[in-house]
Amino acid sequence: MLVSMRLSEKYDVPAELELLYDFVNSLDRRRYVENGVAHAGSDEIDTPRRLEAWMRERGLLQRGGHVDAGDHRAALELRQALRDFLLNPPEDRPQAREAARHLTAASRKFPLMLAVADKGAVELVPVPGSNALGRVLGQMIGLAEMGRLARLKTCASDECHWIFFDRSKPANRHWCSSSICGNRQKTRAYRVRQRRAS
Ligand SMILES: [Zn+2]
């Protein structure tokens, strides 16, 4: 069986957020042309069966475990709430009350509990019997604890909205790719300025 490369591997995202990264970007709305080929958007988890496969591939489903319509709906709600929250630039997030409320509400179906490993390391894991997608939220909390959640951003290009991890030292990037999204935006701004000038 051909196993496709995970997004977090392709884009070299730190391991502590790969699940969160793959989950929020399972909806790909990017529209661009690369080497003459148009990139069409997609949704990796658009049906309960595809979500099941996605979770199984990441060890989030026990043997014989299934995803029903209710689980699927909750997962899509959680993804949308996460994307809506991350759509706000980091500096605006403290004021993004509505997005914060939605995310809080969507997370209710994914309860977490403390787990202490043999060597004393602690982490938040899904409560037994609950949806293992809660691990996505565990990673988000971990990221916030490390002070790195502000590095997880939505690309400022309307034709993209890819969620990227800003590894730049000053953490001031606006675009997932300066060569594609940054250039497109700069060219557009330049044209607007030219039109105004003439
Ligand atoms: Zn982009």
Question: What's a quick, concise take on this entry?
Answer:
The protein is α+β, with helices and mostly antiparallel strands. Helix content is 42%, strand content 13%.
Question: Can you walk through the features of this model?
Answer:
This protein has one domain: Jann2411-like domain (Jann2411-like fold). The chain contains 7 helices and 8 strands, in the order H-H-E-E-E-E-H-H-H-E-E-H-E-E-H. It has a two-stranded antiparallel sheet. Helix 2 packs across helix 6 and helix 4 packs antiparallel against helix 5. The longest helix has 20 residues. The protein is globular. Zinc ion binds next to loops.
- In order across it, which strands form the biggest sheet? 1-4
Strand content: 5-15%
**Average pLDDT, all residues:** 92
The structural class is alpha+beta
Class, according to the CATH hierarchy?
Answer: Mainly Alpha
Task: Enumerate the distinct ligands.
Answer: zinc ion
Approximate shape:
globular
Order of helices and strands: HHEEEEHHHEEHEEH
Q: Share of helix among residues? A: 40-55%
Strand count, sense and barrel status of the largest sheet are: 2 strands, antiparallel
Please give the radius of gyration in angstroms.
18 Å
CATH evolutionary superfamily:
Jann2411-like domain
Number of domains: 1
